[in-house]
């Protein structure tokens, strides 16, 4: 969230700006320039709203000191006088904008929005600070989630071993990327990474695909074929959707894992297999074992080192990081200059549960870039209705739905906000102070919204 420092010697002016901005930004106040400079040395701020008429040091002097302290901080000057000289001097000293009192709230909000857009536009997309990008050989993964840090630690620990790995997680979480990272970090990285989607190959062809076949082994086998395991000798093989293998093929795979050898279809010649197996699934193999649909002995052979990938909705902060990464990627691929993504769009994306995880986010950003306007920002108008639950019904929370042919986007957003606040109230047992803190809004703002939305607890309704 954008952090703003309000600097004004009038308590009323500070209070009014805080009430105006607190729902959308993180606000702190200072009563004079020296106090402001002290706060700026202690914390990072994105923007300063700075009154020109201040005791001790005037606003122009404070502006210059702010820029000496940190050139990257944006400053909007606020003055009780519409003075061309002050305005010109402010802009020459590095101010972003100059606003006169009494100012209209919309004027302040638009100026701040311009600052936010500019900062997003200037924010680097190629994360190289070490805090958001993690390199595993030739594979880079973007994240700032503690849940993903655990995965990265596991990659570093298991990469140099030859033990089998089972990667679990919902569809679209990036299981193949993790498998590639393990391979790229290992001593086998010099040989090709071999991947196969077990669900994409017809069952009758799967054995040949894995182990190869001899000429004439079956109808259509006109030449000898080298299978994936033979091709992956000395390297790593990734078996995606391992749960889709038929039981009889599971038995043959188990033998390969146990004996490290196999035969091509139609041959009795044994071929050694120095292959590291990395398998992945989005289903619970334990349940399939209980149901007799997956061999327990194969499961235990595969599950030597388990790695579970968290869904995107549990990776705090990663939606915005990945959205900007994909924005850069698809802007370059389409040779299209998109300025950036507005905070409003990022707020919607961050609140969306992403059942399709990272793959779904990537598809959404690609669509936005393709449909976006050259040289413009991606904003709320570019959002598709499926982000709110689908084309036919916009889902709000877990229970409410609004038929798209009866309600427009404004009504959908209002219903979504109502359900979102209701969920927070119920989570906090209708404690308004705790709920306001959870929602990161002022308690008075929450009370006003509850009144407008007619949100009352069961106890209040019964009274």
TrEMBL record:
InterPro entries: AAA+_ATPase (IPR003593), AAA_lid_NorR (IPR058031), CheY-like_superfamily (IPR011006), Homeodomain-like_sf (IPR009057), HTH_Fis (IPR002197), P-loop_NTPase (IPR027417), Sig_transdc_resp-reg_receiver (IPR001789), Sigma_54_int (IPR002078). Residues 3-116 form the Response regulatory domain. GO terms for molecular function: ATP binding; sequence-specific DNA binding. One of its GO terms (biological process) is phosphorelay signal transduction system. Pfam families: AAA_lid_14, HTH_8, Response_reg, Sigma54_activat. The keyword Transmembrane helix does not apply. Keywords: ATP-binding, Nucleotide-binding, Phosphoprotein, Transcription, Transcription regulation. Residues 141-370 form the Sigma-54 factor interaction domain. PROSITE patterns: RESPONSE_REGULATORY, SIGMA54_INTERACT_1, SIGMA54_INTERACT_3, SIGMA54_INTERACT_4. The keyword Nucleotide-binding applies. The modification 4-aspartylphosphate is found at residue 51. This is Fis family transcriptional regulator. It comes from Desulforhabdus amnigena.
